[in-house]
């Protein structure tokens, strides 16, 4: 039975294995014929979208992993703008002369996550 999933990631890419586990789940789900409709980064997970995050050479680069997944499966990588701003992940829309969002990630309001869940028959999974 084909399922559609909306993934909600809350842990930073360097804090725990949750961020990595979410990515592994997405690959497993799509290889089993399921669809990932969106990935939403909230709380400390917004750091995944920062192009200033430079992992050590012996660490997995979660940002690049998410970008490869999103590109391969055409999945939007959404980031909560409020949670991002609180953690210094900002766009030029925040009236600053710079931004540190990787262009593969989309800054959106949290309402987008819940509106998608309400409007569609997705299964929401939090990591």
What would the keywords be for this entry?
Hypothetical Protein Ychn, Chain: A, alpha/beta, five-stranded parallel β-sheet, 127 residues
Question: Termini distance?
Answer: 23 Å
**CATH architecture label:** 3-Layer(aba) Sandwich
Percent of residues in beta strands?
Answer: 15-25%
Low confidence ranges: none
The outline comes out as globular
Please give the largest β-sheet. 5 strands, parallel
Helix- and strand-based class? alpha/beta
Give the strand tally: 5
Question: What's the CATH superfamily, by name?
Answer: DsrEFH-like
CATH topology assignment = Hypothetical Protein Ychn, Chain: A
CATH C-level label: Alpha Beta
Report the helical percentage: 25-40%
Task: Provide a count of the helices.
Answer: 4
> What is the overall pLDDT average?
91
H/E order of the elements?
Answer: EHEHEHEHE
- For the largest sheet, list the strands in their spatial order: 4-3-2-1-5
In quaternary terms, these chains amount to: single chain
Q: Write down the Rg.
A: 14 Å
The total number of structural domains is 1
Quick structural overview:
This protein has a single domain (4-126), classed as 3-Layer(aba) Sandwich (Hypothetical Protein Ychn, Chain: A). It is 33% helix and 20% strand.
3D architecture notes:
With 127 residues, this protein is α/β, with parallel strands linked by helices. It has helices spanning 18-31, 62-73, 81-86, 110-119, and strands spanning 4-9, 35-41, 77-80, 105-108, 123-126. The radius of gyration is 14 Å and the shape is globular.
């Amino acid at each position: 039975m084909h399922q559609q999933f909306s993934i909600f990631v809350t842990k930073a890419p360097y804090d725990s294995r949750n961020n990595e586990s979410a990515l592994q789940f997405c690959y497993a789900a799509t290889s089993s014929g399921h669809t990932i409709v969106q990935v939403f980064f909230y709380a400390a997970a917004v750091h995944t979208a920062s192009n200033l995050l430079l992992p050590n050479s012996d660490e997995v680069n979660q940002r690049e992993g998410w970008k490869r997944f999103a590109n391969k499966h055409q999945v939007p990588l959404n980031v909560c703008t409020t949670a991002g701003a609180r953690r210094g992940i900002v766009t030029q829309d925040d009236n600053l002369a710079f931004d540190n969002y990787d262009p593969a990630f989309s800054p959106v309001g949290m309402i987008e996550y819940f509106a998608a869940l309400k409007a569609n028959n997705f299964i929401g999974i939090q990591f």
